[in-house]
């Protein structure tokens, strides 16, 4: 509705930029625009005179007459708009009738968007930083699909570089000491990355000198069969673990991901570098190859020893995306610490005339513990993602049992599934409800609070609404004109905002507006639940209208939570 209002006023004033706001106090209207102030400043007139002129023009329009009960000038140079109850009643019927499509858009039809997120390193456990990238990127991809875009979920895996050389050194050391069969058993016996990582950590202290790792990696680059076979096995096991264990543990479907590795671009680097040199874009400096950039540090493409870098492979990957996918946008969901890298990459893209796709670095901050310090193990090391997931699941199981949320009719397996869904919801909502640029705090108890601003609270609200709907066989059309309670009016107004909020998320590359919207809708729904009789209402037409309101609200809650990657629970 907010976007509709702005676009509608633009029909009358196409050359004027103004803001459409939602006043914090409902007595000041449902929407407010600063158009009188803007026009008065532009035309050097009195805001009051401009306000009267604007209101006269708008109130002659049939849609404004139908949608608003009052349009009035506010002394500060704003015009306030008050939605008409009759309009809300009609809109509720429309929303309910089209509830499975409400909020969807054709805005992105015919356009492709690439969202790069997660991007773990093979043979290493995903850590807490990967969690943020995965949660944010997955939700943004959901939003763009909702708006009609063809979304490519790009998982750019770190499967190349000296770190792979270290693993090869560790494996060969084992093989020399206990033979190939023993080395295979110890290194790959568990068929998990965690097993390989244990070996990596164990032998890393022995091989502080990276020279051996560089030598083994160079052999890999040169096609040494033993190293290539070993690398392929490590990569295969790592990717299998991601799809079977890691992503399912956080409620992320990896089946639609486009897995690309840095190694995929290795064969193209020589021709890429030769092209950059021939075009005069890259040049040598002290034996290294760089690209000089205006107001930025030079981008380093090749070190003096001939080794290529992450930047080189990123340029090759960008070229692949632009030429083979023709995206309108490419989003890189990567931590704040990589800001300089992406500034350099985007500057290089400009030099290469890759101007068609809009390139966006979706930054995010660190994860902090309850003490306000970076979340880390007792040894000061990065926290593995699975450790976080296991902890939240354990706490969720205890909470569900403690507060007796699970009905006795559920068996143990069902109760575990509910606890798992609650834990994932707590984890995701805690992240997405905050601005991604900021650091987030892991307050475990607050994340799982069924009475506060949390994922479990939203799941509980949805289940509460569904418990009402299950009490009736069929929801017939009711007389929505009987919905006059303040809580009912509040919910109907809030439902109208859903499409605008989805669009706002896509334009700002953040999800916190959607999380806040769902919390406010859930809060209004719980107020309604406490104050209004539904099933017991003897006025059948009003009862049916309230059931329509409940079903429309539950559907919007479900669809909004699904956009955030959170599973709803029909029963708790």
UniProtKB/TrEMBL annotation:
One GO MF term attached to the UniProt entry: ATP binding
Any GO BP annotation: arginyl-tRNA aminoacylation
Gene3D superfamilies the UniProt entry points to: Arginyl tRNA synthetase N-terminal domain, HUPs, Isoleucyl-tRNA Synthetase, Domain 1
Annotated EC: 6.1.1.19
Span of domain DALR anticodon binding: 458-572
Domain Arginyl tRNA synthetase N-terminal residues, every copy: 1-83
Alphabetically ordered keywords of this record: Aminoacyl-tRNA synthetase, ATP-binding, Cytoplasm, Ligase, Nucleotide-binding, Protein biosynthesis
Subcellular location: Cytoplasm
Subunit structure: Monomer.
NCBIfam families cross-referenced by the UniProt entry: argS (TIGR00456)
Similarity remark: Belongs to the class-I aminoacyl-tRNA synthetase family.
Official protein name in the record: Arginine--tRNA ligase
Natural source organism: Candidatus Yanofskybacteria bacterium RIFCSPHIGHO2_01_FULL_39_8b
Gene: argS
């Amino acid at each position: 509705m907010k976007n509709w209002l702005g676009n509608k006023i633009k029909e009358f004033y196409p050359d004027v930029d103004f803001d459409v706001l939602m006043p914090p106090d409902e007595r000041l209207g449902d929407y407010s625009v600063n158009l009188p102030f803007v026009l008065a400043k532009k035309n050097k007139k009195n805001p009051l005179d401009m306000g009267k002129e604007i209101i006269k023009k708008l109130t002659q329009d049939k849609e404004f007459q139908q949608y608003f009960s009052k349009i009035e000038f506010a002394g500060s140079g704003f015009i306030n708009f008050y939605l008409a109850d009759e309009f809300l009643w009609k809109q509720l019927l429309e929303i309910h009738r089209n509830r499975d499509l409400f909020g969807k858009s054709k805005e992105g039809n015919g356009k492709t968007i690439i969202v790069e997120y997660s991007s773990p390193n093979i043979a290493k456990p995903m850590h807490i930083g990967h969690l943020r990238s995965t949660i944010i990127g997955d939700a943004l991809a959901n939003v763009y699909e909702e708006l009609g875009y063809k979304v490519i979920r790009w998982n750019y895996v770190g499967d190349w570089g000296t770190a792979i050389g270290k693993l090869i050194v560790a494996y060969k050391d084992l093989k020399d000491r206990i033979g190939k069969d023993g080395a295979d058993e110890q290194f790959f016996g568990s068929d998990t990355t965690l097993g390989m990582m244990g070996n990596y950590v164990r032998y890393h202290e022995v091989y502080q000198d990276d020279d051996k790792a560089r030598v083994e990696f160079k052999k890999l680059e040169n096609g040494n069969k033993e190293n290539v076979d070993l690398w392929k096995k490590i990569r295969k096991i790592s990717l299998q673990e991601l799809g079977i264990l890691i992503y399912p543990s956080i409620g992320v479907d990896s089946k639609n991901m486009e897995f690309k590795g840095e190694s995929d671009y290795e064969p193209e680097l020589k021709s890429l570098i030769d092209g950059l040199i021939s075009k005069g874009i890259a040049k040598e400096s002290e034996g290294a190859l760089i690209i000089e950039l205006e107001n930025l540090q030079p981008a380093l493409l090749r070190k003096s020893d001939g080794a290529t870098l992450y930047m080189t492979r990123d340029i090759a990957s960008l070229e692949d995306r632009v030429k083979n996918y023709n995206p309108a946008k490419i989003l890189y969901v990567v931590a704040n610490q990589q800001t300089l890298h992406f500034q350099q990459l985007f500057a290089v893209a400009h030099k290469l005339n890759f101007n068609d796709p809009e390139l966006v670095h979706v930054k995010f901050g660190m994860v902090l513990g309850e003490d306000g310090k970076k979340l880390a193990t007792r040894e000061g090391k990065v926290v593995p993602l699975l450790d976080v997931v296991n902890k939240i699941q354990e706490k969720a199981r205890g909470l569900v049992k403690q507060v007796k949320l699970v009905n006795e009719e559920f068996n143990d397996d069902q109760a575990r599934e509910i606890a798992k869904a609650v834990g994932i919801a707590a984890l995701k909502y805690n992240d997405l409800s905050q601005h991604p640029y900021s650091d987030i705090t892991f307050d475990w108890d607050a994340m799982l609070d069924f009475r506060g601003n949390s994922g479990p609270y939203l799941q509980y609200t949805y289940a509460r609404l569904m418990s009402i709907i299950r009490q009736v066989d069929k929801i017939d059309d009711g007389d929505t004109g009987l919905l006059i309670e303040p809580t009912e009016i509040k919910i109907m107004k809030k439902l109208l905002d859903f499409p605008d909020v989805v669009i706002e998320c896509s334009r700002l590359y953040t999800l916190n507006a959607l999380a806040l919207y769902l919390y406010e809708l859930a809060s209004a729904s719980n107020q309604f639940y406490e104050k209004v009789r539904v099933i017991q209402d003897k006025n059948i037409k009003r009862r049916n209208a309230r059931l329509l309101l409940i079903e429309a609200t539950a559907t919007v809650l479900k669809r909004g939570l699904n956009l955030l990657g959170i599973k709803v629970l029909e029963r708790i």
